[in-house]
Amino acid sequence: MIIGVKDVITRASIGNVLCKRGLLLIILGMLASISFSSSAVTILTAQEQVNQQAQETKKENKILSSETQQAVAREIAQGVLNGGETFDPLSAISWLTRLSRQTSSLNYEISFVLNIPGKDAQPFLWRHAKVDESTQIEQLSLLNGPGFENIRVNGVVSVFQPGYPAYSMYGSAIDGPIPYALLHEPDKLLKSYQFLLVGRNRISGRSAQQIRITSTDKTRYGYNLWLDEATGMLLKLNMHGLDGKLLQQIQVTQLRIDDRVADAFSQLQQENLPRVINVVNPPQRKHKWKLAFLPVGMKAIKQDIHQLAITGQVAEYSLFSDGLVNVSVYIQAATGVFQNDVNLNNGANTVHSRTDGKVQVTVVGDIPLVTAQLMAKSIEVIN
């Protein structure tokens, strides 16, 4: 029987949320009229500020002009700097750095939906809380079907997945649909991607800043994300192909920030969580081949030997990453089964396999087909 988070946590009711950063939020409240439900963050402003907002509501759904955007940014910056933070509202990377800081420091409960065209929507519940000065707890649950639940206590992640024994492993964050680097290490993406602050818009009834992310060499998918002005948290994330077609969307439906989120973990008993498994990594092996073409910023982070589950064949394996996208490359002796190139797409995921009659090269990852083809064709033998 799988023991999930529901079995070890008694969920506490979470009331209306109090905002800690009053100065910043009052300034943001003057910038736009923001309507919240009882489950959303409550922003307290004076009545005269509410009256002033009414003059701006007609333009809330439009991205502000560059001149207005800069004026808004200056006001936000003044409020944040007065609060003792380092923040440049005209810098996209500064907004992402703020997201990283808030994601790891705030107590929050977020409901979001993962939408992939042609597939059923997947609703998730994401919680994070600093229980005390030395303990952070994070939870991610898939709410449809048998579901799965992951829970992290500091540097240990416990995984509860239907049909498999529960286990724990070491990790600094839960592996979910939101890319780790965007949430925790945006600065490491600067070599591979360009970040553009597009402007101000309205998402889920909240004022948000839109940021566009594109690869520096146009070899990877692009992203658009919207960050909540008041809290800095993620409200929406779109992944799109080189042709602009939507491949994947994450939409936040509820955002609650409150110290009392920690109460949801009050009954968690760490001794009831599964033990940490000992993962023995295979020894790194230098292959006698290399890729002459790699997207800018992408590098090999792992090399070893894999036995393919379907065929049982042994293949040389390399994992490449730019911090945001991982790409796997397999090289094995040609079997003669595939005489022509094989191209498969499943949403954002691409599989490309080709042979020269001697070896079979297979590239798998969330990259465009043209990029996978270029990588597979660039295999060179190292003398």
Please state the structural category.
alpha+beta
Spatial strand arrangement across the major sheet: 6-5-4-3-2-1-11-10-9-8-7
Overall CATH architecture of the largest domain: Clam
Q: What overall geometry do the principal axes of the alpha carbons give?
A: globular
Q: Tell me the span between the first and last alpha carbons.
A: 53 Å
Largest sheet: 11 strands, antiparallel
Any idea how many domains? 2
Mean pLDDT: 80
Order of helices and strands: HHHHHEEEEEEHEEEEEEEEEEEEHE
Q: Could you state the CATH homologous superfamily of the largest domain?
A: Lipoprotein localisation LolA/LolB/LppX
Poorly predicted regions: 1-66
Number of helices: 7
Number of DSSP E strands? 19
CATH topology label of the largest domain: outer membrane lipoprotein receptor (LolB), chain A
| Approximate helicity band | 10-25%
Calculate Rg over CA atoms.
23 Å
CATH class of the largest domain: Mainly Beta
Task: Tell me the fraction of residues in β-strands, as a range.
Answer: 35-45%
